[in-house]
Amino acid sequence: MHKAHFINYTIILVFLIPALGLISACESQNSEVGPVQRESQDSSVAQVEDGIDESSEPEPRLPETGPEFTRPRDTQPVETPDPNPELVAYYQEGVNYYEAGEYASAFNIFDEVIQLDPDFVQAYGARAAIFYEYGDFEAAISDYSSAIDFEPVYDLYILRGHAYQASDDLENAEADYTSAIEMGNEIPWPYSFRGNIRAELGNADGAIEDYTSAMDLSDEPVYLFYMQRGRVYYATGEYDSAMSDYISAIELNDRVPELHQGLAGTLYMLEDYQGAVNSYTSALELKPDDAFTLVNRGRAYIAMDELSLAEDDLTAALEIDPDDEEARRLLLMTTERS
Question: Does residue 336 belong to any structural domain of this protein?
Fold first, then answer.
């Protein structure tokens, strides 16, 4: 690769990965908080059809959170002739635009650099990141593949794995994360990423193994890994293990509402309804206007036969989101049972 212009792909990772919303321990489960489904941290939501009734209680599901990342270890690039210094400077100008979020300007520069020097490896990876930002995952995969042909390094496999995952090609995403693990097997994050894929593919045991490996490789405990593993334990009905992981995650970071929501959903399934109410209350203290948590706490109140408190929560949820059909249905049921 061009030694004179080598730029660590961590620059791309830092800007791209937080926007992905790809970290979830069990995305195929359509992550929910209690009986209300929350698809991602950007608060896009859907509601489950089955609700609570006197004959059966619905199984609450768990929230998801966006990813975090750590700097990968150094990798050895493939040597290619050094480019023209003026082209290197021009490429760096594109990097500056990229870091400033001016993707159109950055794209034009990276595209022109590739036209002028088809061996300029980093320009492919940089252009791929912008294709990803624009949602053109096929083009992103193509550019990452071109870069990997020149320079098969850890960072590029991670990034192409994300692009495969975003395009729902889970098998190739898993293969790329596995390649990253093989190239940097002392780094925790690719295990976390592969764990997400394995969970989505229904391989709960493999996902739990990967999240555990991520924990073991971390220099310090990471709450996200506990959260991810806890969600898989929850999905497989191992509620005691899920509760333990959520408690561990909260001990590491008690300022994340989704952790309290996840613990609440698990306690609900263990029929500890008061504990569920307490955890939903903790979530609401961090995010007071969350209609989803209000609906879920209202559901827990219904299970405790605290119908007046349930009515208060469901009414408050409807004030926040008048179109919340689940809240409306539960409120009607509560009124009928009062």
Answer: yes
